[in-house]
Amino acid sequence: MIGVDPDTGRMLKGLSLALSQASRALATPLGTKEKDRNYGSQVPDTLGEPASPHGRMILINRIFRTFRNPNNGLQQLKAKKVTALIVGTGYHTSVKVEYKGSEYEVQV
């Protein structure tokens, strides 16, 4: 599949396209896409709240659910491990994904 980077207009394919789609799904609030109310994630709902161990677990759960939501079109990526570290009043997150048999770690 071939896609277009929404920021630069460059052509994307393979892993770059899959990661772009994942980034977009994670940043889109669930229920806000007009023709597909099941697209997106609850991750944006976590933004703006002070970091806490409880909030960290909620964030990790929401990231996993985003990757498993079939409406997000992320079937080619499989989230293996989500790491969320509390830094100051926020989080540094990374996701280890599997794409075509290889594993990659990306910052979210």
Question: How are the SSEs placed, and which strands pair?
Answer:
Elements: E1 2-4, E2 11-13, H1 15-27, H2 43-46, H3 53-68, E3 77-87, E4 90-99, E5 102-107
Antiparallel strand pairs: 1-2, 3-4, 4-5
How does this model look, in words?
The chain contains three helices and five strands, in the order E-E-H-H-H-E-E-E. The protein has 108 residues and is of the alpha+beta class. It has one domain (2-107): Nuclear Transport Factor 2, Chain: A (Roll). The strands form two sheets. It has a three-stranded antiparallel beta sheet. It has a two-stranded antiparallel ribbon with strand order 1-2. A hairpin with a 2-residue loop joins strand 3 and strand 4 (90-99).
- Poorly predicted sequence stretches spanning 5 or more consecutive residues: none
Largest sheet: 3 strands, antiparallel
Apparent shape: globular
What is the fold-level CATH name, i.e. the topology?
Nuclear Transport Factor 2, Chain: A
Given this structure, which CATH class is correct? Alpha Beta
Taking all Cα atoms into account, the compactness measure Rg is: 14 Å
CATH architecture: Roll
Distance between the termini: 23 Å
How do the strands line up in the largest sheet? 3-4-5
In sequence order, what are the helices and strands, one letter per element? EEHHHEEE
Proportion of helical residues: 25-40%
Helix and strand content put the structural class at alpha+beta
| DSSP summary, beta strand count | 5
- Quickly count the domains: 1
Please work out how many helical segments DSSP would assign.
3
Summed over residues and divided by their number, the pLDDT gives a mean of 92
| Strand composition percent | 25-35%
Protein name: Phage baseplate protein
